[in-house]
Amino acid sequence: MASTAAGNAFGRVLHEPAFSDLLSDRRSAAIIVGAGALHVCASLIGINLWSCPFRAATGIPCPGCFLTTAILDFLHGKFSASIETHAFAPIFLAALAFTGITVFLPEEHRQRLLSALRNYEVQTGMTAWVLIGLML
């Protein structure tokens, strides 16, 4: 019985709507889009705004290491190089674009989009699976 309860709890956690909850606060979403866009634009012109603290401390790349390089490759049309460098580059670009869309949509459309995203997250556990995949 205890393993069934633990399994049910794990399943509920996987299906929590984390991404839609994050985007429900327009200000937080705007900060994320702004920081992401600033980082990508600075990287496009050769300015490194962020070095991985985990890699600096341990010498071991973290799951996010080389993501900026992969995103830049993707933006330059080098799709296979981008995927080889970091398979999650297109996913992160899509998430950043989606976040930007939610920031600028009129409230009525924004709420409908967030509701659809929330339902999708609850049904599929998409956000948890993407994050688990990133860690693997």
Structural description of this entry:
With 136 residues, the protein is mainly alpha-helical. It has two domains: 29-104, no CATH class; 106-136. It has helices at 2-14, 18-23, 26-44, 53-58, 67-75, 79-85, 89-104, 107-124, 126-135.
Keywords:
9 helices; mainly alpha; 2 domains; single chain; globular; 136 residues
Topology:
Layout: H1 2-14, H2 18-23, H3 26-44, H4 53-58, H5 67-75, H6 79-85, H7 89-104, H8 107-124, H9 126-135
Number of separate structural domains:
2
Q: Taking Cα atoms only, what radius of gyration do you get, to the nearest Å?
A: 17 Å
Summed up, the helix count is 9
Spans with pLDDT under 50 lasting ≥5 residues?
none
Report the β-strand fraction as a percent range.
Answer: under 5%
> Helical percent range?
over 70%
- H/E series: HHHHHHHHH
What is this entry, summarized?
The chain is mostly helical. It has 9 helices and no strands. It has helices at 2-14, 18-23, 26-44, 53-58, 67-75, 79-85, 89-104, 107-124, 126-135.
